[in-house]
Design a protein that fits this description.
five-stranded antiparallel sheet, three-stranded antiparallel sheet, 10 helices, alpha+beta, single chain, about 270 residues, about 25% strand
Length: about 270
């Protein structure tokens, strides 16, 4: 991901909003903290964490980890793409959620398409005696930025169409199940007690399930959204059962080439689970 630009909006019903925009692709992201604030959680961080864990299968594909630096301090945070913000607005059970989702989707769309150019105040605005003055030079800069964003949007659209063509028609077949179902079936739980889908997927990939045709990516529909997710074939489930049988009830493993280490607490497999 290229450099991120901070954009602030002060004219929204739920209060001031800060989002991040990728300067290369134009994609807009929202941090856990900002999403929690605008959904109305009393403890934004804890509220969003619980929402994410409770709806991991639906929300995880629309999030990513980003390293941000503020005041010289770097910190990795979870950020939400437009689809994830929209889904969180429906899944949250707060008084603000309904009002938030009414304008959030349009706000993201406007920013990503350049229909409403919002550049930091240092670039576009000067203030004199309380009045906003925008010079012709600044207006020309805004037009230039809009043109760049539209061009980037067209490039992104072409890439997305290519990706969709690669998996178009790839729907779930009889007997195929998601990593969430596999994790629940064989009692692979995270420290929070939730089915550990991510650990199951990483183990499957490390054992070559994709290359062997035991794991594949398909498109699933959720209302007006189409989400790409991984599913296990019946043979893949059977192969995972063998791996599961060889492991103890509590273990951890490191994903090669990354700093990721998963801790799994597994209760004994149920009879006939394989």
């Amino acid at each position: 991901m290229s450099a991120l630009k901070l954009i602030r909006r002060d004219d929204l019903p739920t209060g001031p909003l800060e989002v991040l925009q990728d300067q290369e692709t134009g994609e807009v992201l929202m941090t856990d903290e900002q999403l929690g604030i605008h959904l109305g959680y009393k403890d934004p961080a804890a509220g969003i964490r619980k929402l994410y864990e409770r709806n991991f299968e639906e929300l995880h594909p629309s999030t990513l980890r980003v390293k941000l630096t503020r005041d010289g301090v770097s910190k990795e945070v979870r950020c939400w793409r437009r689809e994830g913000v929209h889904a969180a607005g429906f899944l949250a059970r707060t008084d603000r959620a309904r009002a938030f989702r009414k304008y959030a989707a349009r706000l993201f769309r406007d920013l990503e398409t350049g229909a409403k150019v919002v550049v930091s105040r240092e670039v576009l605005e000067t203030r004199a005696e309380g009045a906003r003055l925008v010079s012709s030079d600044h207006l020309l800069e805004a037009v230039r930025v809009t043109t760049q964003q539209v061009s980037l949007l067209l490039d992104r659209t072409e890439r997305l169409e290519g990706e969709l063509r690669d998996v178009r028609g790839a729907r779930r077949r009889p007997g195929e199940v998601t990593a969430f179902v596999v994790a629940r079936r064989y009692h692979w739980f995270s420290e929070s007690g939730k089915p550990h889908s991510r650990a199951v997927l990483d183990v499957a990939k490390l054992n070559g399930f994709e290359d062997r045709g035991l794991l594949r990516q398909v498109l699933t529909s959720d209302g007006d959204r189409t989400v790409a997710t991984f599913v296990f074939s019946p043979e893949g489930v059977a192969e995972f059962a063998k791996i599961n049988a060889s492991r103890g009830c509590e273990h951890s493993f490191k994903v090669p080439g990354t700093a990721v280490t998963w801790s799994v607490t597994r209760s004994p497999a149920r009879k006939g689970a394989a």
